[in-house]
Amino acid sequence: MTLAPPLAPAPWIEQLWQSVTDGDEYAATGLVLRALDEGWEPESILLDLIAPVQGRVGEEWAANRFTVAQEHAATAINDRAIAALSHRTRTRPAGQPRRLAVACVDGEWHALPARLVAEVFRLRGWHVDYLGAQVPTHHLISHIHRTGPEAVALSSSIATHLPTAHAAITAVQATGTPVMVGGAAFGDRGQYAALLGADLWAPDARTAAARLHEGPLPRPASPHQPVDDLPHLSDQEYTLVTRTRPALVRTVMAGLAERFPPMRDYSRAQHDRTAEDIAHIVHFLATALYLDRADLFTGFLAWTARILDARGVPAHSLVPALDLLRAELKDFPRTTRMIDQATDHLTGAGPVHRTDTRNPA
Amino acid sequence: MTSIPQVPTARTAEPLEASAWNTAPYPALMVDDLGTVRLYNDAAKALIPRLRRGRPLSEAGIDWLDQGHRRRAAGPVDDAPLSGTIGDRDFEAHPSDHTDGTAVWWLVDDTDHRLARQALRTERQRSAFLGEASNALLSSLNLERCMDVTAELAAQHLADAALVITPRTGKRYPVVTCLRDGQPHSAIRLEDPEEVPGLAEALQGFPPVPSRWIDPASAPAWLEPEGFGPIGSIVVTPLPGHGVPAGALVLLRRDASAAFSSEEEVFARIFAARAGAAMSAARLYAEQSSLAHTLMQDLMPPVLRRLAGVEFAGGYRPSKNNERVGGDFYDVHPAADEAEASLAVLGDVCGKGLEAAVLTGKIRNTLHALLPLADDHQRMINLLNGALLSSHHTRFASLVLVSTLRKAGSVHLAVTSAGHPAPLVVRNDGTVEPVPSRGTVVGVLPNAAATTSRTALAPGEFCLLYTDGITEARGGPLGDEMFGEARLTEALSHCAGMPAEAVVEHVQMLASQWTGDRAHDDMAVMAIAAPRSHHLSAVDGHTRGRFTA
């Protein structure tokens, strides 16, 4: 049971936000410890104070108002606040505690949501192994064999990690251990979690803890291969697009330079940034192919268009890049369908999907 | 209607037809629409002695046939055969109709067929169970989980309850108990296995004792699962392992009459063989991984924290995803007292993987032993160089030593690089300055001359040490570019004022995104930062604001 915070959380959130954006860890940890002294439930501090602030960090980044470095700095302050809270509330679990492993998918650097989950379960008396950001599946599996947790919680914020997440989910399930997943990558309603065969999707740590409090998750069914969940993968389009990603980026860059002569005078930083943007587009395209979800690709381009708009770049500048990509991939029916749908959306010819799966909160 | 022989309606029939009917190998009887037996052949008479012509079929004592006949006479005509027992055999009765509502029932003995079908079904169930068991057992290399799975499967398919007991760890026996349809429960028991006839032998790997030898009355109370009730019969089966006994499986049934048949015992042994193999593989894996874990412990990079008012953070990513250690290393050694400088070291041994990691361990130990000389970097490097030259390793190393001392808010650094990329200092205005220090790698030449340079970090500023795994990382959006110092410098210029661990995380993330899935070298990063805040005095002692991250 969690009590509601004794005071309205809004002013507290505002203060923590201030400390976090100032990079003032002392103010941040001081505030969190004061909340504890004033009777907030530790779990409520994590989920009703720190989590919303971290969510706002993610929103600021997604809206291009924070650089990645600023995001890292703010997250580090929040992380220290959690550490301070954890230090003050540490108790030895009684008896034989239930055991949970919490990890971020390989490649995933946004560790704070996973850390919040780990802390919440710890507060509820679980023995939690928090493996941190970017955990190679190999390490995760040997950890499971060594420690035999009741379940594994996997976190991912960026949708492009979903193919890796799928491999990790399948591998963990093959050890007979159920997997619960969370994080923005899995979709706002967990729609991608079901596609990837996760045993449970939870929108937040509280829901996850409440579900496991009811009893253990059922042991996963007999081992299966990733392609069993996603039969469309047998058309190899995902594999081919992924394997040729650098070549695709090079071709699109060359084609763009031909169409826009000023690009040849780009500084290296500008050149890098453009190449990165195109690499992202190809990466999201590959992910959409993996899941066979065109809305994921369209959603990403809609988000990119908004960011470009904020930078003062017209959104239709993405269309030539998509055209070049389509010409390269013209033999792949699923791929061309997705590119066409996204192009229609950008040019205003198609329906609007807004699925922002890049929000790291 | 299928063709039926022209059935004689009375004893006055032609002798040939009558003889064919009477000597037919299958019992047959004719019953009219009122249920009266009209006729039967010799085989039917032999099978059902109470058959009488002109009497109701109900008097013959074969109720299932009588009832089936009535149902058929009353309702729509149905050609499906009936089945039931006569004496100790199973029969199918196939009807054929005569026009006036009379039916002839042909009885076919299908006892053997049924037994064969039953045996087939049992075998199928057993192989399905063994398949499921193998899947479940093979999937885990965790001993506790294997014990759970074994107990659960055995309780579900072989008995009303099952116990899995593994050989002792000290004086204690881990025991997992599972009731049918229940969850496995594990406990540690101190009881003497000699109390259960056959258990001690099974734990030592002797041949199993058949169930009839174990008197349930002699079973000790601890064997009886909570809520199970009186035990009817017990089988103890050893779980064979690789060279060592993996433990024993104890199967309990409630009902004394449901003792285990010899077939069931054999089957339990087949299951036990698989469970035992899985459990001993899990045991071996646990031993190996704990061995590796212990040996690796000293080679793993340490977790860095704040020391004497200076923030330290480190991050490490080995070149191979399946390894945890490699040829890069770092350490921070605190000074004996806060008035003296702490020593931070970051280095790179030529080579990758475990072999390189072993040498990093030696270098770290050597440097640790040389700590009393920490204020003389050149001397430390000379001694380390000598130690490496005289060892049998042909590898060499580059490293950077940084002495840190906090004085009045700023952090003073003495930096010496032995063939290592120059550390980068990031000022509060975003300027990135390489710290000029030159020296040769250690472990190659008789002399390893190096120069030391000094600088100071104002509050909020930091110094980044890194290995060339970062700058020489290949990848990027085009796939084959080197990350390079220029990109690192550019990225750091946006990190001014960031906490040490955020800097480390940021640099690690950039490098790892740059390489993507491609192969890369070991990568190590360390940030040394002068804390921004004036609250520092609150962090050294036991005041309320104190914490360790």
TrEMBL record, chain A:
The keyword Metal-binding applies. Residues 97-223 form the B12-binding domain. Keywords: Cobalt, Metal-binding. The keyword Metal-binding applies. PROSITE patterns: B12_BINDING. Gene3D superfamilies: Cobalamin-binding domain, Methionine synthase domain. It holds the Pfam family B12-binding_2. InterPro entries: Cbl-bd_cap, Cobalamin-bd, Cobalamin-bd_sf, Met_Synthase/Corrinoid, Meth_synthase_dom. PANTHER family: METHIONINE SYNTHASE. This is Cobalamin-binding protein.
